[in-house]
Each structure stands twice: as structure tokens, then as C-alpha cells.
What we know:
alpha/beta, Purple Acid Phosphatase, chain A, domain 2
Amino acid sequence: MRIAIVSDIHGNMVALDAALSDLKEKGPVDHTVCLGDVAAVGPQPKEAIAFLRKMKWPCVMGNSDEALAKSTPEDYSHTDASKEEKDSMVRLDRWTAAQLDASDRQLLSSFKPTITIKTPSASILCYHGSPRSNREGILATTPDAQISEMLGEHDALIYAGGHTHVQMVRRLKGAIVINPGSIGLPYEKDTNGRFRNPTWAEYSIVTVEGQDLGVELCRTRYDLAILEKRVRASGLPEPDWWLDDWF
């Protein structure tokens, strides 16, 4: 059985299209699951939600999904940006919320805190940040004891979460903990310590065949010019500010 795992689309349909094209080249999968944070921050929040509605992928509720589902354009803000960026982020958050209607919020509200995918020989527990909170993240440097506390009484062979936007595979006793990275908003630090967004889409493929297990972390490039065109056509506020971090 092959399962594609995507996370943190963040309204970037250019990146999602690139990932799906790359996935198609790698061969068919039996299931695709989304780990949340579907719409916020990117240029096509409504289109991302419409795509998930069409595909009917099981989807975990991310922290920004939860905030959007419960808010109005006047009060939505999930940002923890620096003081210098806060005003711009608030304008972006409110623009995002204004793009959505009641049916979009209803779909976001239907997302589950966790999703379990079962194969004949293994189970995969999917969540956003951790099973107990969509606002805490698991990193390669997180101590085993802390991860065990986050996972609680859940029992799975594979634990899959997003939120950190950083790809990862690590062992935890007899289990494997993975993060597929971010489809629409990956980031890395440059030599000056500044966070920047590369134009690649990240996802993962998990393969379970009897007792054999494979985890592939995937990354595919796309054209920055296409993303820029989509951003400027979307009406997203302050497009130059938004695009400044991308390369």
C-alpha cells in the first residue's frame, strides 16, 4: 500500500499542482491524506479549499484551519510575526478570511484532530502539530521523552505530522515519526539567519508491504514567475512584501 502525505498547502496552488504532477510521475497511490493548514497565508485560499472539497481527501485540522473556521474577516488573525511584519500579516490574514464563505468554513470545521490510516500490517496516525495540539511541533531535535508525552496513549507504527514546515524522519522506539514538510510554504535560513521560502513543494510517500516499510521525502521545484503571476492576479495585499522572501 502506498500513501501520499501532504501538509501545509497554505493557499499555494502553484506548489500543489507541482507536487501532484511529481507524484503522478512516481506512480499511483492508494490513499492521500492532508495534515492541515490548507488556506491561510497564500494567494489562493478559496481555491485550495475547493480542491480538497473535490478530492475528498481526509484532512487533519491545522491551527490556521481552526482559526479560519471560527472567525470573521474582522477578527481573524493567527500570526505570531515580528513587530515589523505584524501589520502586514494582519492585513493578509483578514484578506484570507474575506475570501471564504460559510461553506468554506463548514469544510474547515469538518477536519478532524487526528486521522488513522490502517494497512493490513501497520497503522499511521496523522495529526497537524501533535495528537494533543495543532500548535506544537515535533522536530528532529525534540527529545524522545517529550515526543512520547505529546503522543500520549496513541499506538501506531508511523506517526505523521506537519506544522513545522521542515521535512523529517526519525525513530522513536519501534515507531517512525515523519514530517512531509510543506507543500506551499517551505522555509530555510540563509547565511544571515533570515527565513526564506524556496520555490519547491514538499510531500512524502509511505509504502507498507507486509513487514517492509518505506518512507520517501519528496521535493519538486516550480517556476517563481508562475507563482508571482498568480500572487499579483489574486488581489493579495502587499504582493511585493509577500514575494520578497521567495527564491
